[in-house]
Each structure stands twice: as C-alpha cells, then as structure tokens.
Amino acid sequence: MTSALGLGTYAFFWEGAHTLPTGPNPEPLPLGGMLARTAELGLSLFQICDYAPLLGYSAAELRGLRATADDLGIRLELGTKGVAPAHLRSFLDLAGVLGADYLRSMVFAPDSRPTLAEAERMLREVLPEAEAAGVRLGLETYEQLPTAALLALVEEVGSDALGICLDPANTVAALEDPRAVVERCAPYVNGIHVKDFAFSRRDGWVGFTLAGAPMGEGLLDYVHLVETVRPAERGITRIVEHWLPWQGDLTTTVAQERDWTDHNVGYLKEH
Fold first, then answer.
1. Dihedrals phi, psi of 220, to nearest 5 degrees
2. Terminal-to-terminal C-alpha distance of the chain
3. CA nearest 257: which of 190, 212, 199?
4. DSSP bridge pairs for 18
5. CB-based burial of residue 248 (10 Å sphere; 0-12 exposed, 13-18 middle, 19+ buried)?
6. For residue 3, what pLDDT is reported?
7. SS3 state of residue 204
8. Average pLDDT over residues 151-159
9. How far is Cα 68 from Cα 57, in angstroms, rounded to an integer?
10. How does the average pLDDT of the chain come out, rounded?
11. Could you tell me the CA-to-CA distances from 114 to 84, 119, 267 in Å, in that order?
12. How far is Cα 48 from Cα 31, in angstroms, rounded to an integer?
C-alpha cells in the first residue's frame, strides 16, 4: 500500500455526485464505495473533501464510515471551505471521530470572505485546538486569493499546525505561473492536490477552456513539483483529483473518470 498517495472525493466528482447536469443522480456512489475503490487501487489514503452529505451523518453513520475505512486499511483526511472558528471546530470534531489528522480548507467560504486580518484572528483562535487534537490545517492555493496573500497569512500566523495545500492548477485562473506558485509555497506545503490540466480552443476558436487532462498529458510540470516540494521526504500526502468535463451522459462520463483515476494513480506510483 502507498501511504502518501490517495484519492479524494473530487476523483469521484461525477460518479459520486448527487446532482448532474441532467438532474438528480438516482444512484450516486456512496463514500463506502469510494473507499472500496481506493483499496482496489492499492492505496491507503482517502480525503473526504467538500462532501456536503457528511455534515448530515449521524453518530452511528460516522462510526460505520470509520469502521469501513479501518477494515480496508485506509487512513482518512477531511476537506472543507472557510476559516470561521465554529465551522473549523465542527470539522475538528469530525476528524476526532474519523481518525483524520489533516484538514484542508480555504480562506473564503461560499458565504464568507474575511479580510486577511479577520482570517488571521480566526485561525489564531482555533489553531491551538487543532494542535491539541493532532490535526494539521492546510489552506489551499486557488484563484480567489493571490498566492502572495495566502503565504503572508500563513507566515503571520506562524503555527506548526498550519500550512498550505498546494494545487497549482487552481492559480492558473488568476494568471499565476504554476511553477512559480510551487516554488514560493514549497516551504509551507503540508498537503498536495494533484491534477493535470490543459487549455483547449472552444468551438469556433472563440476563446479557450481550462480543464483537466490525464497526468503527464497536460501543462502540470509534476517532476518540478516533486523535486521542489519533496513530498516523500517530508511525509506530505498527495491526493488525486480531476477536472473532467461532463461527457454528455453519466455512463460515458463515469467510465472516463475511472479511466483517468486508473491512469493517474499508475502515473504517480511511477513518479
């Protein structure tokens, strides 16, 4: 089993979706199925990230999820959005039940856009509780917040429990150079979301679409990322995700999503 490499819910974006472009998904793949698929691929790590149904799980359902993960030999991580103390505390509670020691988040949530000073205050309030619980928090790089501002926040807080969840693909939308983002963030990275990406011309050659690509076929310089961040040496986990556009119907889309997962896991095991 590869302890530092895992899947996340974004690798099951379509297969596990409750709502599709065509309407409700009658049979979304549950978390238990995602865990089983993770084990089938020889992985022992799974990140439940931005998975809204988790907040509605009963205590018994959470214990059952933990038992399933334990039986499969899978370690869990969590992911959410926002830095409001009450919200982060709810996920620290979930981490305790699920045995997760890593929580990915973002500075902004759908209903909250704190200033950096407000975010700093919020993080300082809750990080001692994260440290006591043995949970590391990683704030993700993304286009809504310049990387320089994210780095300034992490440096100002200065907690061993706080780092950066590196996803250079996100920052392309803000016209940031992915290689430069990797190099600037490297000392603070404590988690990685791995996806390749590429631009393609839209119909009629009117503009471009930025979307996912199989690993090694897009613009992500993964060799540079690994050489710069050194995840294996530092015990930094890598979570496989996709930006797979809808392929017109669920069967075709899920089949391609599974193919991408198989390909990407194989690629990352070799690199």
1. -70, 125
2. 15
3. 212
4. none
5. exposed
6. 46
7. helix
8. 98
9. 15
10. 96
11. 9, 6, 38
12. 8
Determine the residue type at 16: G
- State whether residue 270 is helix, strand or coil: helix
- Count the Cβ atoms, other than its own, within 10 Å of residue 111: 8
Residue type at 48 in one-letter notation: I
Please state the domain extents for the chain: 5-270
**Tokens matching residue 135:** 């949970």
- Topology of the domain comprising 5-270: TIM Barrel (3.20.20)
Is-contact 83 118, C-beta < 8 A?
A: no
Q: How far is CA 72 from the centre of its chain?
A: 21
* Token pair in block for residue 131: 């440290």
Q: With pLDDT > 90 as the criterion, what percentage of the chain qualifies?
A: 96
- Using CA atoms, how far apart are residues 78 and 164, in angstroms rounded to an integer? 14
Q: Cα–Cα distance between 137 and 101 in angstroms, integer?
A: 9
pLDDT of residue 192: 98
Place of tokens 């049979």: 27
Q: What is each CA distance from 143 to 71, 97, 105, in whole angstroms?
A: 38, 32, 14
Hey, how many other C-beta atoms are within 10 angstroms of the C-beta on 55? 10
Of the pLDDT bands very low, low, confident and very high (cuts 50, 70, 90), residue 166 is: very high
- In this prediction, residue 271 has a pLDDT band, given cuts at 50, 70 and 90, of confident
| CA atoms lying within 13 Å on the CB side of residue 161 | 17
CA distance 189 to 182: 9
Give the pLDDT confidence of 88-146 residue by residue, as tens digits: 999 999 999 999 999 999 999 999 999 999 999 999 999 999 999 999 999 999 999 99
Give the C-alpha distances (Å, rounded to integers) separating 163 from 2, 18, 138, 232, 248: 23, 31, 5, 17, 38
CA distances from 44 to 47, 141, 160 (A): 11, 25, 25
